[in-house]
Amino acid sequence: MTGFSGLILFNMEQRHAERDPIVDFGEFVKREQTASAETRSKDWIKERDDFLAYLSELYAQIRSFLDEYVRSGGIKIDCRDFPLNEENIGSYTAPQMIIRIGGKEITLTPAGTLLIGAKGRVDIAGPAGRSRLVLVDRDASGPAIKVTVRRGQAEAPAANALPRNIKWSWKIATSPPGIQYIELTKEEFSRMLLEVVNG
């Protein structure tokens, strides 16, 4: 056996020597039962409807930011149905906003609500770039990442539950790796539009 395949075999043998497969399988079954019960108890229709309501509020806010330009004829705003399909929620449509400034077009496309680190996301694409709006805790200034390390068969510590009364807010997410959340104001939204249109 050579190099890489020998390493894989050694790692598999080491894993098998350290664990009892019956115990591992039993733990796996318990975890899946718990996860399945939590999934069934969640109101997925409400999750979808909440996301659509927040999306509607976002689009109303954007329309108010651009109102003077729409009234003067400098900007046109349209919406069309955009298909989404999310695990547990299923298929549904959400509005995609299209902003036209002269011959330039910017699309605001909903990405969904079942995301890691956010309650929702809208992807923004223009001729010269991309950006994102995320629905996050209004007090958040960037993503919060928590890492848990387990050694041996020690029981994992209970995850901290999210506070029940989070105030959700749409924010502009900067590009990775140092993602920051910027308050969504008329000035910041205008700056973002300039970036995706002109680069």
Descriptive report:
This protein is an alpha+beta fold. The protein has one domain. It is 39% helix and 29% strand. It contains 4 helices and 7 strands, in the order H-H-H-E-E-E-E-E-E-E-H. The protein has helices at residues 3-18, 21-41, 44-71, 186-198, and strands at residues 75-86, 90-101, 104-112, 120-126, 129-137, 168-173, 181-183. Strands 1-2-3-4-5-6-7 form a 7-stranded antiparallel β-sheet, covered by helices on one side. Strand 6 (168-173) and strand 7 form a beta hairpin. The relative contact order is 0.11. Residues 1-12 have low confidence and may be disordered.
Pick out its properties.
about 200 residues; alpha+beta; seven-stranded antiparallel β-sheet; 4 helices; 7 strands; disordered N terminus
Please summarize what this structure is.
The protein has 199 residues and is of the alpha+beta class.
| Number of DSSP-assigned strands | 7
- Overall pLDDT: 83
Give the low-confidence spans: 1-12
Q: How large a portion of the residues is in β-strands, by DSSP E?
A: 25-35%
Can you count the helices?
A: 4
The radius of gyration is 23 Å
Q: How can the largest sheet be summarized?
A: 7 strands, antiparallel
Number of domains: 1
Kindly, what is the distance between the CA atoms of the first and last residues, rounded to a whole number of angstroms?
A: 53 Å
Structural class: alpha+beta
What overall geometry do the principal axes of the alpha carbons give?
Answer: elongated
